[in-house]
Request: fold
Amino acid sequence: MKERPWLASYDEGVPKTLEYPEKTLPEILADVAGRFAGNPALYYFGSRMTYGELHEKADRFARLLVREGVKPGDRVALY
Reply:
């Protein structure tokens, strides 16, 4: 394993690594939005967005990219 000097500063009990599900990010978001649609997902400068809203907006953005000709494997940058 590569050296990871930042691990020395972790508090006791903080895991050095996490296990991640074998799902894509869109699958994870859909699952979480299905279970916690009304719960807050984001707080930003006094605004709040629920998991349901986040899922809906992400889906709309994905559909827009497809309409604009973005294909699987294309790279998209967000600023």
Observations:
- The mean pLDDT is 94.
